[in-house]
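Quick start: what a row looks like.
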Amino acid sequence: MEMWRRQNLLFITCIALICVASTAAVIHVSGYEGRDVNVSCSYGEGYESYEKYLCRNDCGDSDVLITTTEAKKNKYSIYDDKKRRVFTTTISDLSSVDAGKYWCGVTRTGKDIYTEVRLEVVPDSCCDRSTNIQSYEGGSVSISCSYESEDQNNLKYICRGKQPSTCLQQALITSDNKRKGRFRLTDDKESRKFTVNITSLTQEDSGSYLCGVHRNTGLDVFSAAELEVKDPSLFHSVVFIVPAVLLPILIFALVIVCKYKCYKEQGGGVNMNRNETKAADAEEAMGGADIYENQEVVAGSMKGSSKKQSTSHQYVDTGGDQQDSIYQNFNITDDIYCNEFYSKGEKR
């Protein structure tokens, strides 16, 4: 019976240890290529004087990277804060091969205490896309940066360049200090957007900018902007040069349009040829007389015809020669009127 109780107690203890181990939090750490990263692990009370270490894989003797008995080894350094019961390992000059699983260990009699660590290494650059902004020297510009709802109360900042790893240390302005020289930061938490206004721009302000949102765990979040500050004199030059170049072209186009309209009003080439033919026939019929002389003939003919027409009211029967003369006068009148229309078209 005593043996059975001991076996049950050992079984329950093992189950409890497994449950504790399975619920232990995994430490997630991220760092930038070429930079340093800190891996911090806490331990329980009473282990202040015990040896601590960082290892990989199965944590055999060859897998131990550094211990608290040696302050620095290769690219690793370690420090034990016994008051806070936290030891921190710094890994320098990160590369992609440094990414993966690590273990924080505490040496003790029997089995050591382990805490799992997952390290992520990312390139020290940002971003795949950026916002292009243009302004002029001496003016001002606003750079707007969006963020997630979970970051509403986090620190916001902006810096120059494309390296996220040093952005916070080189920040031009932060949300803790919303006015600094030519820079002013406003944070609209309702629309989840903060805006940085830059005044008195110079061409030296041109370049890359990063909007950063600080996070307590993991890497900060960034968005990128490209600012181009132009010389205002170039803008004014374009304003005056472009009209000067376009004006002659517009004038030339108007002349062509006007000539085309005049050409259409004159009836085009075909109508002109027909009018010329009629004019030639009329001139030949009149013996080469001037068109204006034909007008006098028309007037005289019309008087004569009117007299003859009035006479025809008195005499019903008229001679055949007289009728031929009247019809001939009418035909001449028609030709002259055609010539007069053509002459007016030429004068236009």
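That is the whole record. Residues 172 and 304 are 105 Å apart (CA to CA). Helices lie at 2-23, 232-265, 268-285, 291-314, 320-347.
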